[in-house]
Amino acid sequence: MTTGSSAFAVPDLDALPAMDVAARTARLRNAMGDVVGGCEALLVTDLVNIRWLTGFTGSAARLLVLPDELLFVTDGRYEAQAADQLAAAGVDAVIAIGRTQAAQREVITTAAVGLGRVGLEADAVTWADQRQYATDWFPDAELVPTQALAATLRIEKDDGEIARVEAAAAIATAALDRIRHRLLERPTEADFGLELDTEMRRLGATGPSFETIVASGPNGARPHHRPGGRTITEGDLVVLDFGALVDGYCSDMTRTVAVGELSATQRRMVEVVTEAQRAGVAAMRAGVGCRAVDAACRDVIAAAGWGDAFAHGTGHGVGLVIHEDPRVSAAAPEDATIARRTIVTVEPGVYLPDHGGVRIEDTVVVTDDGCRPLTHAPKDPAWPSRPTTSRTA
């Protein structure tokens, strides 16, 4: 694979600002008090939430949030890792290693003696888990189902989180810029997707933040097409939806590029989606309704006669997970609004089986009076054929 230099700078990942991980537990305790009837403790089992609260990146852990203490329980594989990562995050917790499930249960059960109400993360606990917790883990406590306590707190990002998403976006843009010329050399979708993923890693990403979408020609009319063996050819619109992963944080960007000349219908598709995406970004600000942002995009596409060809929501939150709250769609709760410091996408699209697909997506961070884009790749569909004024990134 041959890659070039890029006009887009690659961020210094060693210079990213710190995140105030240690302060997050206090916010969670406040949220626990808002649960109907309150809960004295919360057992956190969702690994994404555990990472957000402690910095731990392993695959097995439970976190018991007590009124004045954190109890972190994992198994022997992660003894050193847990100590290192919690210390690096500045998190003061009791770390207990249970080499068997029974040993972990005993540690948590002992810590919970005397508690009257213990919260469980309803979205992360199966029915079988709940029954075990009720009978074996917390036999003397009332179990309280909680809904998205930590996930709701994760919506508003701190400076360190915003910087990581922005760095991931910058890596994704630079990676595409370095290999974009390959679109003119008749690669398969799968080959181009692999090259894009590899280049993001080469530039410092842990990996792609989700499975890269390369959808060419008629495949572009499938919004979540998986790249396959189709050769990218003259006259194709190519939908590229991809992102990089930096320190656990995701980026997300879609660009639709043209290989060769477009038909009149394809040009109109690009014009309409570009206008719709611009309208959605213009509507995005703190306090605006999620449905209103979706309508800003959807109205433009409907006015062009393609309302039925925009078959997904306008956007979603981005952070430690590629699809987080809030959901920016017509199906969002009527009272759902966008909070400041939310990182969210704006990604309208039009999909016509006889002509291909067009989607344009930016990730933005929301401010009081608007939003700031974190993704900066050009949106001109002719971008792949243009020479770059190169400099070493």
Which helices and strands, and how do they pair?
Layout: H1 24-33, E1 41-44, H2 47-54, E2 62-65, E3 70-74, H3 79-88, E4 94-97, H4 101-111, E5 117-121, H5 127-137, E6 142-146, H6 149-153, H7 159-179, H8 189-202, E7 207-208, E8 213-216, E9 236-242, E10 244-246, E11 249-250, E12 253-259, H9 264-283, H10 290-303, E13 315-317, E14 324-328, E15 343-346, E16 349-352, E17 356-359, E18 362-367, E19 370-373
Parallel strand pairs: 1-5, 3-4, 5-6
Antiparallel strand pairs: 1-2, 2-3, 7-10, 8-9, 9-12, 10-11, 13-14, 15-18, 16-17, 18-19
Helix pairs in contact: 7-8, 9-10
Order of helices and strands: HEHEEHEHEHEHHHEEEEEEHHEEEEEEE
Strand order of the largest sheet: 4-3-2-1-5-6
| Strand content range | 15-25%
What is the global morphology? elongated
Mean pLDDT: 94
Calculate the terminal CA-CA distance, rounded to whole Å. 19 Å
Q: Helix content range of the residues, please?
A: 25-40%
Largest sheet: 6 strands, mixed
Taking Cα atoms only, what radius of gyration do you get, to the nearest Å?
Answer: 23 Å
Number of strands: 19
Helical segment count: 10
Classification by helices and strands: alpha+beta
Uncertain residue segments: 387-393
